[in-house]
Amino acid sequence: VAPAIHIGPEAQPEIVAAVEAGGGRVVPLAEAAGLVWIAPESQLGELPAGIRWVQLQSAGVEPWMERVAANPQITFTSATGVYATEVAELALTLLLAGVRGLWRYGAATSWDPHDDRVLEGSTVAIVGAGGIGRALIERLAPHDVQVLAVTRRGLDVPGAARTLPADRMSDIWGVADHFVIAAPATSATRHLVGAEQLAAMPAHAWVINVARGSLIDTDALVAALEAGSIGGAGLDVTNPEPLPDGHPLWSQPRALITPHVANPPSAQFRHLARRVQENVRRFAAGEELEALVDTGRGY
Amino acid sequence: VAPAIHIGPEAQPEIVAAVEAGGGRVVPLAEAAGLVWIAPESQLGELPAGIRWVQLQSAGVEPWMERVAANPQITFTSATGVYATEVAELALTLLLAGVRGLWRYGAATSWDPHDDRVLEGSTVAIVGAGGIGRALIERLAPHDVQVLAVTRRGLDVPGAARTLPADRMSDIWGVADHFVIAAPATSATRHLVGAEQLAAMPAHAWVINVARGSLIDTDALVAALEAGSIGGAGLDVTNPEPLPDGHPLWSQPRALITPHVANPPSAQFRHLARRVQENVRRFAAGEELEALVDTGRGY
Asked: Fewer Cβ atoms within 10 Å of its own Cβ: the N or the C terminal residue of chain A?
């Protein structure tokens, strides 16, 4: 039988379609066995006794932890991972825009061609091969580039010419042409790109950060950009963030800064819909759901 | 036996490697059966009697036509088509940069996020599916977009969801989200994008031109950008070209203009090398060469 799912606080058409594509039917909250909640936790009241599963809209689940702990009879699932392809899309955008000289031409008011590089034929190091890194490797596949992946343990990543473990990361800085940072922010990855790493990069290197600002030592990056020792930096995340007015990064022409827009609101329903459809299907089939929220791990 | 090839005026290492990879050997001009000429026609003197094949560096061959006609015993081959992948790379760069808001963020000096669109999930029309169009379709493949191709006769293009013949092109303007112009400049394609086509496009549409400036009616484009009736334009070619200082396109924030740099000099040898290697191989094997220059067609 088709599981009874409520979508709240409003029944977004993309999510309704996803519930139905997953084999469910959309019902009022009081009749529901599952709930897709497209709003902050604070806007959700007490759950009816019939609810056995709640799908959250967000990838981060900190505000939900208390409710999750208080309702062990309910399965909570998050949106973690579903936004990876858009983040990878922006990483590729920043990389291409940097390498192909858009940082220069975007502000130009005169026809002044330069002999910029192309991405094709280059070596791109991707630090972190979770969902974002893997989605980026897929998007780089037709570009005739060689991908070096760095993962914690160094297990082979599909599509990468080589994968290195994190403890051999120092090998990549002098070898790759460009660098994309897509690793989680932990104490071990703080300032993963600092003065030493920047100094080892080739003069044409673009450094892209779509992870967290803390992974790059901002002062060292500003110094490298000022000295012209790297090609440039494409940053969707910064440290500090938001980057304050007057910060020296704003005045570096070779810094392409997007204000943490890798996953824009207008695209979120589309991706959440994938997770909803799959989890409704699994809920109907009695299978384990995707992206279970685990109070023990805190994510 | 390995064919005797001269490379002039200078033996570029990439081209030497290509000749050898194709099974040839590099010799002085007087001993050569084939010549790879990496310079304008005007710098080449009279050809020794032993020369049976000349590989040109350029895709355009107009300056060679007199010599080609005067030397029917010699086969001339051009570089036509070998630069398609870099042009496609720039087309994708401009498309992504436009859609993801880099036209806006590139000039920003303050943290001000907007809810921009993503490329993923959109429909991209590609007008012209020659080498550039096909290379772009390959590069779009991992992006979860639907490609509509327009070709002269409308024969199916691999990777396109639909292919339309040129005489049904009017169908695409209201259907696709974004438009990439990659068709040859002929009398039939002049102002292919004009006021009527721009008016039919969705308000978020980006129009990319990597073909020739004449394919877009510049005045109509400026009017559409001023009215905000399209998302923006990414132009590697313009009409007039070079775009003069003070032209209204320069002051449109939603016009991303690159000064005809789709095929930058630094990348040319890499691509010419592919053509040289393949043609040396064919020359050695007695096969028909790639990209024969034909005086009758004028290209």
From this structure: N
